[in-house]
Design brief:
six-stranded mixed β-sheet; 3 domains; 32% helix; Diaminopimelate Epimerase, Chain A, domain 1; Threonyl-tRNA Synthetase, Chain A, domain 2; 429 residues; 10 helices; six-stranded antiparallel β-barrel; Elongation Factor Tu (Ef-tu), domain 3; alpha+beta
């Protein structure tokens, strides 16, 4: 792992350094406190002399700074550099929060493993309000776990993470030899995101979110999290501020991705959720804590009303069918008519039940946005329901299909009565 000066001294954001090399817009300094993109953490931004630093990358043993324009200074000169503090502090909070979240996951997830990490940071020139309302400032941690991460687990994850913030746990970092790191129990490694973590000559940088402090005495309990990490971090969890879990997804089998926010976006997210909860509470005329029960009651009432409406529609549709004439064609009894106030899905079960009961072949035409046709044929009927629908759509446009026993079509170019008239003339003697 490349131990960057920025990671070792994250609170250093203003420094002067000698320029070693200039190649167009790319600059290498004798020493730099700009953080180079690594391990899921984006590069720092800031200023170098009179130019903006727009990217920082590690190239071998060198930290290469890309400027917005070719600089006015040359190799051998000394240049004043300033790291954008808001972006740096955001990344420090976000990166430390990811460690805190992983520690929290140990309390509510089984067979836990680390699958990845990523910070997305807003442009340093964006306003605080713009950042709070954007999708730019968010962080993700991928957990490998056998636990089904449902809403209850997400809530517990957020609760435990914020507890660790409230407890003001000290955050420290040190470098160890690979052998010493291997021998220490409890260190989380992810060789995918921390390239070279076990390199032949590399030191391993270990970040520890420590135990709680008990007054002025010795810390109590086990560390919250210990991980190999090359990123920048705050000195104490209280500097993170509130952690707001935004949601979850499944990027791969056995893996759960949790997105969260810190800083303005986290506060804005919590404010929106609170506003929505209070609005729902007001509309439902219950207290905020009673909203879930009230919603459940409403859902039950809606399902009951839907069932009542479906039964009423069925009775009304049966009543319409009783008014339609039944005619004979090629040995089959045909019932054809135009129905009102229903769509094709409402008509399907009625047509299926009526085929063989009221007539061997039932063809119903209605309108829901456009004209539709539904055909059903009893198992003993000679007619083919699919063929009936094909004839109708060939004549009046639209499309559809089905089986010999049931078929439907839609998008017909005429009103239902015209289709019924054509069917009766074409099918009945």
């Amino acid at each position: 792992m490349t131990v960057q000066r920025a990671a070792a001294e994250p609170y250093t954001t203003s420094f002067e350094s000698v320029v070693e090399r200039v190649d167009g817009r790319e600059v290498v300094l004798a020493e730099s406190y700009f953080y180079a993109e690594s391990g899921g953490q984006p590069a720092d931004r800031g200023r170098m002399g009179d130019r903006r630093v727009v990217d920082v990358q590690v190239d071998g043993d060198a930290v290469v700074h890309t400027l917005d324009e070719s600089p006015s200074f040359d190799a051998g000169q000394s240049v004043l550099c300033r790291v954008d503090w808001r972006r740096r502090m955001y990344c420090m909070r976000a990166h430390t929060a990811s460690h805190v979240l992983y520690g929290a996951a140990r309390t509510c997830m089984d067979d836990l493993g680390y699958g990845g990490f990523d910070i997305r940071a807003a442009d340093e020139r964006a306003s605080v309000d713009a950042v709070a309302r954007s999708d730019a400032d968010r962080v993700r941690v991928d957990f490998v776990t056998s636990t089904d991460v449902d809403d209850d687990v997400l809530v517990e994850l957020q609760r435990q993470a914020n507890r660790a913030v409230w407890e003001s746990r000290n955050v420290t970092w040190e470098t160890l030899s690979p052998d010493a790191a291997r021998e220490r129990e409890g260190i989380v490694f992810n060789e995918k995101t921390e390239e070279g973590v076990f390199g032949a000559d590399a030191e391993v940088r270990v970040v520890t979110v420590g135990p709680t402090d008990v007054g002025a005495g010795e810390p109590s309990g086990d560390p919250w999290d210990v991980a190999a990490c090359g990123g920048t971090h705050v000195r104490n969890t209280r500097e993170i501020g509130p952690i707001s879990v935004l949601g979850r997804s499944n990027p791969g089998e056995g893996m759960t991705r949790v997105e969260f926010a810190v800083g303005p976006r986290g506060i804005e997210h919590q404010s929106r959720e609170k506003t929505a909860l209070l609005a729902a509470s007001r509309e439902l005329e219950v207290g905020p804590s009673e909203v879930p029960e009230a919603v459940e009651r409403l859902q039950s009432e809606v399902e009951s009303l839907r069932a009542d409406l479906a039964a009423a529609n069925r009775r009304a549709l049966d009543g319409q069918l009783s008014q339609f004439p039944v005619g004979e064609r090629d040995g089959d009894d045909w019932l054809v008519g135009a129905v009102e106030g229903v769509d094709a899905n409402d008509v399907e079960p009625v047509a299926r039940d009526a085929a063989g009961d009221r007539a061997g072949v039932v063809v119903l035409v209605g309108e829901a946005g456009s004209t539709f046709v539904v055909a059903a044929a009893d198992a003993g009927a000679a007619a083919d329901a699919g063929a009936v629908v094909d004839r109708v759509t060939d004549e009046f446009g639209g499309g559809g299909g089905g089986s010999p026993r049931f078929a439907q079509g839609g998008g017909l170019s005429v009103d239902p009565e015209a289709v019924v008239e054509w069917l009766r003339e074409d099918r009945f003697d």
